[in-house]
Fold this protein.
Amino acid sequence: MQLRRWWILAAVAALALLVAACAEDDADDVDEVDDEVEEEVDEDVDVDDDEEVDEEVDEEAVDDLGLAEEGVLVAGSDLDFEPFEFIEDGEEKGFDVDLMNEIGERLGVEVEFVNSGFDTLLTQLDGGEFDVVISALTITEERAETVDFSDPYFAANQAMVVQADSGITGVEDIEGLDIGVQAATTGADYATENFEPDATVVEFPGTPEAFTALESDQVDAVFIDLPVASEQAEGSDTLELVAEVDTDEEYGIAVQMGNAALLDAINATLAEIVEDSTYETIYSEWFEGDVPEQFQ
């Protein structure tokens, strides 16, 4: 009887030990699961923290551009110089417009264009009315005395347009002619330096006024940037492009002197746009022929 009682007590003790061991294993499993959950949570938190840091860095980068209004890049332009910048159906269009919008998008800012006369753009930029000027603006030493220029983004020459039945075949026929130019442009400077006194240079505030004068016989020719001359001649039944003059000009984006952060950001972005062939895509939208080698 005692033997049987001892056996029962031993069995109960063994069963208790087995239950305890199982409980410890379950607890260990639970601890392992808890540890895994904590690791996943920590990883999620770390990712979120990284994203927040990235967003803060991006915001700081935008703030550091020295813009007059946070998140908005105000671009001054003479929006009457097709195909570089013009207004159609109330919307800004053109090569310069597309390029500036691409730069703005990559910098994380909204580009706002302000239309103004070409001859006052740099003065307004210096006065803080714009953050940049992009307006088929040739880089010159004189202009670089008052503003900082980006790296070049376009190469251009000058050209002469006349009425198709004028008998004028090129710049060698300029003697005695009245030649229309847009005021404050490199075309006006070149014409004054190279055509006078054989010809009379007549300045107009904008491109439309110059070509209106040509079509109404107020001037005999218009001397202006080649892409604009081509656009005007191709779109008219009465005008003809008779000469291209190699002036080796390059356009740049102007910023206020001393705003190195914005200038550096624009230059870096321009380089990216050329490198990934976005420049070629924009160029092909507005011009025929191959992209100049320096922008490939």
Observations:
- Residues 1-57 have pLDDT under 50 and may be disordered.
- The domain at 72-153+252-295 is CATH 3.40.190.10 (D-Maltodextrin-Binding Protein; domain 2).
